[in-house]
Specification:
By secondary structure, the protein is α+β, with helices and mostly antiparallel strands. The chain has a domain of 81 residues: Sporulation related repeat (Alpha-Beta Plaits, 2-Layer Sandwich). The chain is built from four helices and four strands; from the N terminus they run H-H-E-H-E-E-H-E. The protein has a four-stranded antiparallel sheet with strand order 2-3-1-4. A hairpin with a 2-residue loop joins strand 2 and strand 3. The longest helix has 20 residues. The chain starts with a helix and ends with a strand.
Length: 176
């Protein structure tokens, strides 16, 4: 009997101990607002009185001035584009697997069309496409059979401000 009382007393004490270790739900998710510790302290800096002119480097550049080369295609001078004169039209041969550079993806057709126009004027690439892959319009450039050529164009697009440009597999048009 005395042993049962001790066991009951120990179990009650142990359960009270476990309950006291738990935190109440009212304070568990309560967030304390932190007091603003930074005050408007303005540091007073001493006036600068260091004169750097005696340490200035003098550059004497000798040589003739070099004339600027005329590059009509801007930074795209490596990518020669064929000019349609009427008698020299490209003839579609077939469609095959190849690579294109995806520049932009949006769900707004007018935005995709404006990006296409901007890229068409900046790159002098005649093959700029808008593909509709529901629900997105994707602006893609080029008809490349070689991955490295597409990667070079992707690099150029990164340089002029399209960091999201990437090479994608696509069916491309082959012209002759």
């Amino acid at each position: 009997m005395k042993q049962n009382k001790i066991i009951i007393l120990l179990s009650v004490a142990f359960s009270l101990f476990l309950i006291s270790c738990a935190t109440s739900t009212a304070t568990r998710y309560k967030r304390e607002e932190k007091k603003e510790t930074s005050r408007n302290k303005t540091k007073v800096l001493p006036p600068e009185n260091f004169n750097i002119t005696p340490y200035r480097t003098k550059l004497n550049i000798k040589g003739n001035k070099v004339e600027k080369l005329n590059q009509p295609n801007g930074i795209w001078y490596e990518y020669k584009t064929k000019v349609d004169t009427g008698s020299n039209k490209l003839v579609f041969v077939r469609k095959t697997k190849g690579f294109r550079v995806q520049v932009y993806s949006t769900d707004n057709l007018s935005k995709a069309d404006s990006v296409k126009t901007i890229i068409y004027s900046k790159t002098n690439q005649k093959s700029v496409y808008i593909d509709f892959d529901p629900p997105f319009y994707k602006v893609k450039i080029g008809d490349f059979l070689n991955y490295n050529d597409a990667k070079n164009l992707s690099f150029k697009l990164h340089q002029i401000g399209y960091p999201q440009a990437r090479v994608v597999n696509d069916s491309v048009n082959v012209f002759k």
